[in-house]
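Whether sequence alone determines local backbone shape is best considered at the level of individual chains. In the encoding step, the backbone of a single protein was reduced to a row of integers, each denoting a local shape. For completeness, the protein is quoted in full, as a sequence line and a line of structure tokens.
***
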Amino acid sequence: MKSTITARQKRIFEKIIEDATTDCYDEYEQISGWAALLEDNIPTPCNCIIGKERVVLEKIGTDDKGMAVIGSIKLNKAKVRALIQDIILENKTATNHINAYNS
């Protein structure tokens, strides 16, 4: 079930989306814009959750083809990459940025 977005949240998301995609001419530049905005607004390393696992988000960037925003995750001693929208942050302000990316 998808949660309802309030009018206030919608305005916040619209501002974040505008900040991420200003002066972007194609989808590759938009993905890069999102990666840069998320990296600037989500302090890393930070604790987060993937599925039911507590992990550490170490870095935000794009995949090898520049088609998706990903997070580099430290899970136990392994390092893995996950789609940014699959990461749940403990910091609610930073979560707004991922939620705007998902919207």
